[in-house]
Amino acid sequence: MYIDLPERRYYSIGEVAKAFGVNTSLIRFWEKEFDVLKPKKNAKGNRKFTPEDIKNLKFIFYLVKERGFTLEGAKIHLKEEKKETLNNFEIISKLESIKNQLIKIKEHL
Fold first, then answer.
1. Each residue of 73-98: pLDDT tens digit?
2. CATH assignment of 11-108, given 1.10.3720.10, 1.10.1660.10, 3.40.50.11540, 3.90.1150.10?
């Protein structure tokens, strides 16, 4: 899954939800369910997601939405830190990013 977000230090929950194509309520729900998601909150309580949070969200999205894991199954999978799955996921993400960049270049030609 390719997420098109500009490189920044922090992302709002609206930006993250739009990039993933989900509601903000799902992002908030996953934040409560998964310990690896710890967005910073400002004085007003607005969530600010870091690139590390985005990486974790991508992996959770991959496990739940693309691989069909239940939430409990995804939690167990994350806790066991299956390095092989994480490495495969990172490789797939990089390849999809390259593919999307090549498609954009092709469209401009």
1. 888 887 776 656 666 777 777 888 88
2. 1.10.1660.10
Rg (CA), the chain: 15
Give bridge partners of residue 11 from the DSSP assignment. Answer: 49
Which run of H or E residues covers position 94?
helix 83-108
Residue type, 88: N
- 44: Cα separation from own chain's centroid: 24
Using alpha carbons only, give the angle 57, 52, 101 rounded to the nearest 5 degrees. 75
Which residue type does 107 have?
E
Domain ranges of the chain: 11-108
